[in-house]
Amino acid sequence: MTTTTLLLIGLLSILSLLILIIPLKLPPFVALISVATGTALISGVAPAQLAHAVEGGLGKTLGHIAVIIALGAMVGRMIEISGGATVLSRLLVIRLGSHRVLLALGLAAFAVGVPVFFEVGVIMLMPLAMGLAAERHWPLYRLGLPMCGVLLVVHALLPPHPGAVAVATAFGVEVGRVLAFGLPIAAVTCVLLLITGRRLFERAYRVTAPASEPHGPVAGPLEERPAAGPGRVVLVIVCPIVLILLGVLAPSLPVPPALRATLEVLGVPYVALLVDVFLAMWLLGLARGLALRDVSTQLAAAIPGIAMIILITGAGGAFANIMVQTGIGAALAKAMQATGLPILLLAYLITLMIRAAQGPTTVALMTTAGIVLPMIQTLGLSPNQTALVGLAMGAGGIGLSHVNDAGFWIVTRLLGLSVADGLRSWTLLTTLASLFALGCISCIWPFV
User: Fold this and answer.
1) pTM of the predicted model over 0.70
2) In terms of C-beta density within 10 A (0-12 exposed, 13-18 middle, 19 or more buried), how is residue 119 classed?
3) Looking at residues 347-356, what average pLDDT do you find?
4) 120-153 b/e (C-beta count within 10 Å ≥ 16 → b)
5) Are the C-beta atoms of residues 375 and 333 closer than 8 Å to each other?
6) What is the Cα–Cα distance from 378 to 380, expressed in whole angstroms?
7) pLDDT confidence of 215, banded at 50, 70, 90?
8) Membrane-spanning residues where (predicted)?
9) How many CB atoms sit inside 10 A of residue 394's CB?
10) How far apart are the first and last CA of the chain?
11) What's the confidence (pLDDT) of residue 421?
12) Residues sharing a CB contact under 8 Å with residue 443, sequence separation 6 or more, in sequence order
């Protein structure tokens, strides 16, 4: 097929995907698989090869990230039911002082956001934000909006969250490398976000009674236990990060070969998270007097909630694989290169546009991966540069959260904001955070 024909098919496939998800309200998993199948057939993939092309992309993606997402969800579940996140947040407020309550809440959101999905983190920390706001006679959004912004930044940029892991897998770059660059970028972005939020939300918004969201089902014996200490929660949060980073650094460390090999094994992302699951089981469950049966029940309860996320991520991998195999991705990449825009800005803008059009960050990242991958392959980028391109896509996945994003409704409902005020506050804040992250990435780019 000609380049023009491939471009037309690619644009129609993306448009079809957006139509199926937005006005027709089709589940993203079904929409991605349907469009991937239709795109493959129209592009000339033989029926005999259709299943291999679609299922191959899905299986390749899930083979790497499904276990990471599942283990990460289990760790998040143990933190959630232990009550330790609230204890940690209150301790930070006490240590930093009441005049730094926003900073304390931001630090807690950053720490909790690493192993916990965005929506769960919001529900976990919102009661604390409500209590702190009431003590100071502040409107809830003054604390809640920056706190939720920090959770979204961590969700979009850092492994083990599905978007970051899926992009690293698609680009063939180590998750540890993405984490090593992503941590300082996310930290600086969150600091800028907190500073901006402190001044931005001094103005008044119309507020209704905030909605209350229940936590997930909790087994009876857990309700009778005191919350886990903050030190235990910090250890569980830090453990996989340290192991993964040590795995990346192990080849260059002056240590005996046996220790280097051990560090490399422990640094494999799924191994690091598996170790962390056992650590969480002990520190947040068994050591608090819970029976192994109850702990196992809570671990199993983490899976149903993330099953659809895993399927969507896999379907995004199938769509990306079709875009690559049919040559559509290469044609789109060639057309975008002709604009003369730098790869960082292109990856960011494409993700931001798809995010604005269809909502979920993970779907936007997976869709963009299929478009950007051929460009990365032709540019001959280094692993560090490739990781930064993936993080630029993550930055695009932060911005323009509005009415087609489930996160928009969770935040505005819990904060009691109207849709109009939500657009003026939450959408604005997420877009500023997105630009902050892109700015940080652009500053690092010349030095890698």
Assistant:
1) yes
2) middle
3) 88
4) bbbbbbbebbbebbeeeebbbbbbbbbbbbbbbb
5) yes
6) 6
7) very low
8) 7-24, 30-50, 62-81, 101-128, 140-158, 178-196, 233-253, 265-287, 299-322, 328-350, 362-381, 387-411, 423-447
9) 32
10) 38
11) 87
12) none
